[in-house]
Write a structure and sequence with these properties.
Strand order of the largest sheet: 1-2
Mean pLDDT: 88
Structural class: mainly alpha
Number of helices: 8
Length: 159
């Protein structure tokens, strides 16, 4: 629910327009077995080119309608009924080797940056410096956005 609560703040930040030297990527985390399927859903959405439109639908599906996304059957139902994806297209990506590799890569990010909760924002500079903020660090979602804005502004002034 924390990512769901954070999403409106993130949308506003992105709508302001990202600076030319900033790219933004969402990365799903997998803290336990139940989260693996939602991470796979994220990857399927990316591979089908529907991740942006899927974002609001998936949050509504999980948090407003209280529907599960914890099994293959849950995901199939979501993609076919909510996103109009054919079962063939769903399974093409659900079972793909490249999707499984991405899951390992996402898991690696969680470990590398020692992500302990969501949402977490990580800023990685071209020189390899990293800055991280999360609700436990910033104490409020608005502070997370303010922190990232401040850091990106300062870094832009330096380079």
């Amino acid at each position: 629910p924390y990512c769901y609560q954070f999403e409106p703040y993130l949308k506003l930040w992105k709508e302001k327009g990202l600076k030319d030297n900033i790219s933004f990527s969402k990365i799903p985390v997998q803290f336990n077995e139940k989260w693996i399927e939602s991470a796979i859903a994220f990857e399927i959405g990316k591979r089908l080119g529907i991740s942006e439109e899927m974002n609001d639908v998936i949050y509504n599906y999980m948090h407003e309608e209280n529907k599960d996304m914890f099994s293959e059957e849950d995901l199939l139902k979501f993609f076919t009924q909510e996103m109009n994806v054919t079962p063939e297209d769903f399974y093409k990506h659900y079972n793909s080797f490249s999707s499984k590799l991405k899951m390992k890569k996402y898991e690696g990010y969680t470990e590398q940056f020692e992500i302990m909760g969501t949402p977490t924002l990580i800023l990685i500079t071209k020189r390899g410096s990293t800055f991280m903020t999360s609700p436990s660090i910033a104490e409020h979602p608005v502070n997370m956005i303010t922190t990232i804005d401040f850091i990106t502004t300062k870094l832009s002034e330096q380079y």
